[in-house]
C-alpha cells in the first residue's frame, strides 16, 4: 500500500482557488476504494446542457442518416469517439403562445428558460409559473432506481460555467430538480467538488498531530467532520422541532441535505475501515486511480463589459471542463455517484467569446448578433467539452469494456438553430452501446427531447416509459 | 382621484402621477387585449383602504425564516471573527436568487425564493473550515475568538469559555447549558487525540459557521391571544431583526446586553438602540447597499477603477441625504451638488479638481442620482452598443415609480436591437406607435428618451453615439402626461409629486421584510408612506418602522 502523505489537501486546493494556478497534488485516500470490486456492473445516467442556440440550419442535419462518417462542423470534436456517440436530430418541444394552449410536455413561447422544464422533466412550462422546473428531472428519477449504494445516491451536479456573469441564477445554474422550483444548483467550486468527491484533509487548527494517523482506517479529519456535522444536524433538528409548519418545511429541506452529507461521511468511514484490496479485480478501475484523482486548477474569474454593454466573464471554462470531465469519470468509476448532471453553460450564457472565436461579446450576444462562423464556433466549443467527458468515461476500464459502455450521456442545447425556438434540435448521445445505436445519426422528426431521456433511462436500467407528461421512448436510438 | 384609490386601483403602491394612465392601461390591457392587474398577484379593486396604523401588531404581514444572503454572511463573519471571507463565499456558495421580472422585487434577500441545496451544505462545510483556519492562523483574530489560554489539549473549561464567548452572538440568543456541554463533549476528544487544543477550537468555529441559527434568521416569538398566526417576538429576536435591518449583520454585544436587560421591550427602547446603530459605519454600508440594489448600481466595481469612482459618487450622495444632512429623502433626485474624484470630473468634462470634492452639478447635470454615471449606466445599453430608451425607461418605471409591467408578448425577441442602427433614435424606437407594442412601450420609452443626453457611461452628449448625424432629442414624458427634459426635470417631477415617497417606501419595505409585496401589504405601505410624509427623511422612516408595534411581531406566511 502506498504510504499516506500528511498533506493538507484543502491547503493545496486553496492555492488553486486563490488563482495561483499551482497544480493540485492530492494525497492518496484510502477511503476512495471503489465498492465495485464486487464485480457487479452498474448503469449510470448523465445529462449535459449548453445554454445557446445550435447555430445555423445549413449545418442541419449534421450528417446523413445512418453511420457517422466524417463529422461536419460543429461536431468534429467527436470524430475520434464517433463509434461511441450518436447524433439524434429532429427533436422538438411543442410551443404555444398562451398557457391554456400549452399541451403536455409543451413550452410557453418565451425567449429563455421555458424549455428547461419540458426538456429535462417532461412537464410543460407556463408563463404564469415563474419557477423553472415544474416536475422532477430525469436524473432524479433515474437516481431513485439506480442511485442507491453510491456515495451520492441522489447524484452529483457539475457546473463547467461557474458564474452567470450578466444574468443571475434563478434556475440557470440548475440542470436537476427533485421538486417543482428553481432546481438544484450545480457545484461551481473545484474545491467543493474535490472535497465532496475525494474526501478529507489533514490536520486542522494549524497544529501538527503528535501521534501519527493510523496507517489505515478513517483519518482524523473524516471523524472530525462527522462530529461537526453531528452537532450541526442536532441543532437543526432541535430548531425544526420548535418551528411552525411553514417555517419547518424550509429548515427540513436544509436538514435533509445535512443528513445526506452525514451519510456520505459515514460511508467514507465505512469504506476507509475496510482493508483495500491489494490487487484490483480484473476489469475495474484500480483503487489507486480512485485514490489519486486528477490534478489541475484554474485561476479565478474575470469579467468585463462587452461592446454592447453586457457583463461578460471568463472563468477558464475550457480548462475547467478538462478537470470536470476527469472528476465525473472518476466519480462514476469509483461508484461515488451513478447519476450526474454536467452543465457546460447557462441559459443566456454570459461567457466571453474571446477565447472561443475572438469576439468580446457573450455567447448569448453572439447568438443574436454574431456571424454564422462565430455561432458555429460556440456550438463547436460545447461539443468539444462534451467530447472530453466522453473520452474520460471511455478511458476508465470496466468489466472488459469501459465505464462509458454502462453510462448514458446526453448533451442538449438550449435552442434550435433559429433562436429562441425548440424545433428540430439535435442532441449528442453517448454510451450504453449495447442497447443504443452508437456510431450513427438517427432522426425522429418531432420526437420530444424527454423521449430521448426515457430511452436513456431505460438504457441505464430504469424501468419507465414516461417522463413527466411525456410517454414513450425514442425508438430510433434503440437497438 | 385620491392616493388611496390610486393605490387600491393598481392593488399596491402606484404613484399618484400615474393614476390616469395606469387606470387606462388596466382597462386596455398592456397588449391591447387583456385586462390584467399590473402587479403579479394583484387585483383591480377600487375599494378605498382604511387608514392603517403602525401600532397594529400584524401590519407588516407575513414573515418567515430567512437565510443570510451572501453579503450578510460575509458581514456576519467579518463582525464575529474579523476575517473577510468574500472570495470564499463567492467561490463556494450558490448565488442568491433574484427574480425581479416575476416579483417586482429587486433585492437579493427574498426569502420566498430561497432554498437549501446539497451545493449550499457542501459549500458551507468547506467555508467553515477555511474561516476557522484563517481565524486561528492570525494572532489577533485568534486572540479575539479565544478568550482564554488553554492549559493543555483537553482544557474543557477554556473551550467552554470560547463557545460562550462566540456562540450567543453567532446564534443571536443565549446558549443553553446542554448545548455547550454537547459541543465540549463532542469536540474535546479530537483535541486530545491530536494533542492540540486548537483542533477543538477550529471545530467550534466550524460548528458555529454551519449552525442553523447562524445561517438562518429564525424568529419564533410567543403566541398572542388574538390571532393564532400572530406572534410577539422575544427581545433577542427583536435585536436580531434590528441589527440585520440596520447593519445587515449580527447584533453587537451591547445590543445583546440590551435585549437581556429588557431595553428592547418598548418602542422607545428599540428606537434608542436604532439611533446608536445608525451612528456606526455598518449602518452607512447597509444604507448604501440598499440604495444600490434598489436602483440597480450594485455591481461590484474593481478598486481603483473609474467604476469605483462612479459608485463613490452615488454612495456619497446617499450618505449625505440619508445620514449626514438628514434631508428629505427625495433629495436623492434633486441634489444640485455631486461628489466627484478628479478622474470622474474629467470623465464628465467638468473643471479639473485636485482632490475628490463636492462640486456644483452644473447646468446639464442636475437631478441627483439620475444624472450620475453609476445610475445612468444601469442596464442602459442595447445590443447595438448605444443607450436604450426602453431599458432606461423601464428602470425608472419599475424601480423609481414601482410600476409593474406585464411580461413581453409571447415569442418577442427582447434581445434584438430596435430598428435600423443607422437611423436616429426617435425613428428606431417607434414601438410607441405600434398598437401591439404601445401599451407597454408608452410606459417606458418616453421616460428613457428624457435621459438620452447622457451616454451609457454618464457623459453628456449632444449627438447620438451610434448615429452622430442625429442630434440628441432629450424630451421625455412620464406616463400620464408630465413632460420633461433631462434628469433635473425628471427628478423634480418625481420628487414633488409624491410618487417618489410612495415607491421608496415600498422598496424599503421589500428590503426590510425580505419579500415581494402584494395586495395585502397595502395598509403597511400606506402607514409607512404617511410616516415618511410626516418625517420627510429616511432616518425618520426607519425609526418609525423599527419603533412600530408591528416590528415586534411576526405573522405566519400563508404562502409557504
Q: What does this entry look like structurally?
A:
The complex is a heterodimer of chains A (479) and B (560). Chain A is α/β, with parallel strands linked by helices. Chain A has 12 helices and 18 strands. An 8-stranded mixed β-sheet of chain A has the order 2-16-3-15-14-1-11-6, with helices on both faces. Chain A has a two-stranded parallel sheet with strand order 4-5. In chain A, a hairpin with a 5-residue loop joins strand 9 (302-305) and strand 10. The radius of gyration of chain A is 22 Å and the shape is globular. Chain B has 560 residues and is mainly α. Chain B folds into 4 domains: 1-49 and 380-497, no CATH class; 53-65 and 220-279 and 521-560, no CATH class; 66-217, no CATH class; 297-378, no CATH class. Chain B has helices spanning 3-9, 19-28, 70-81, 86-92, 100-103, 118-137, 139-145, 156-171, 177-194, 197-210, 212-215, 235-246, 253-260, 267-278, 281-295, 306-324, 342-348, 373-376, 389-400, 425-428, 435-449, 486-497, 499-513, 522-535, 538-546; strands spanning 62-63, 66-67, 216-217, 222-223, 230-232, 337-340, 357-360, 475-477, 483-485, 553-556. In chain B, strand 8 and strand 9 form a beta hairpin. In chain B, helix 24 crosses helix 25 (538-546). Chain B is globular. The relative contact order of chain B is 0.15. The model of chain B is unreliable at 1-51 (pLDDT under 50). The chains are: A alpha/beta (479), B mainly alpha (560).
